[in-house]
From TrEMBL:
The keyword Oxidoreductase applies. GO terms for biological process: coenzyme A metabolic process; isoprenoid biosynthetic process; sterol biosynthetic process. This is 3-hydroxy-3-methylglutaryl coenzyme A reductase. Its main location: endoplasmic reticulum. The lineage of its organism: Eukaryota, Haptista, Haptophyta, Prymnesiophyceae, Isochrysidales. It is found in: Endoplasmic reticulum membrane; Membrane. It comes from Emiliania huxleyi. SUPFAM superfamilies: NAD-binding domain of HMG-CoA reductase (SSF55035), Substrate-binding domain of HMG-CoA reductase (SSF56542).
Amino acid sequence: RKELDRAMVAHTDTAVGNGVDAVVEKVCNDELPVHSLERELGDCARAVLVRREWLKRQPGVASAEAVGRVPHEGFDYDAVHGACAEMVFGYIPLPVGVAGPLLLNGKTYQVPLATVEGALIASTRRGCKAITAAGGASAAVLSQGMTRAPVIRFPSAIRAAAFAAWMHDPANLAVAQEQFATTTRFGRLTSCRVTVAGRYAYARFVCATGDAMGMNMVSKGVSAVLDFLSAGSFGDLELLGLSGNVCCDKKAAAVNWISGRGCSVVAEATIPGHVVESVLKTTVAAACELNVAKNLIGSAMAGALGGFNAHASNIVTALYLACGQDAAQNVESSQCITLLEPANGGADLHVSVTMPSIEVGTVGGGTILAPQRACLEMLGVAGAGQEAGSHARELATVVAGAVLAGELSLLAALSAGHLMRAHLAHNRKPAAP
């Protein structure tokens, strides 16, 4: 292994060669800003080579040789620049597996999942098998809308209350919608609810954003609305921050659990008893009993906020990484309540997941990267749909369907006492000699 590491570093050093060393010296001497090498050199791949050599010489890097082992070749850095990441010096490969076939809303999907957790994909695939053998699952989008809630301060609580009353008037909302519409061809302001705390007003704008996840689109539109209001009836408003945490982005919050954010989705399936026993290796009664004790009572005892599930976060994160979504939005996107109930007199198993805040997009962000776009193409949802927002909605249903499969399989394994056996089989192997 050490010989291989040395060979990789040597290859990197050779690749640098020819004029790059001189650039590295300029960067190290602060004659060239390291953060803007792409612009200064006009070559994103060359900028990465320079930055790698610069990084090897920096304090805080315990092993210069380790920098050389981070892969960097064969990547489209032009796509990343100005869109996905800064100070880039390489990339991190992740294994991508597939869970399926998943029959959902009459369509078959093979779901790509990027993860380093052994047994996760195998377990989710087993859940897909059970669902498909049962005739498939159904999913519906209950609502769709991205939110942004700026924090605004007024001279008095009375003025903050007046602002809330103004925004809640449908006629005034129409005025705000006109201002929002001046900033985008694809976005639309649909509603706004203001929460007041003393002199502070938190206006939670809800917006349709087409097939984009839409945070930037919404922020731009909300800024235009506030500029209009501050130049008119509310010249005394003071914008403290475009996000005031009532949005609520990348944090577990009751407002998302109750009101939703992104796509609110429900998915369900009825699994015949013989499939429960032959595929999932458990019984209807045992699975239902565990779900109540673990996901409902156990989660309540833990004070969970939207965490009434077994491991929705596992599937959401793995699918997000594979499909170019914002992985940090896993926090609210994996809010989920899983329900298992006996059906048909206890002979069969009804399972459902309700997920109020699945935040996904099929255009923009990480979806512009070729591998991530390829995973979206696998699912048939890459890019904009024929109807605005249709691809994002379909992707959200796939997320819920995959979570349904993952929940079903894990709860079955736990109720049958097979969880540790599965992890030992899929997540452990002897150390290399």
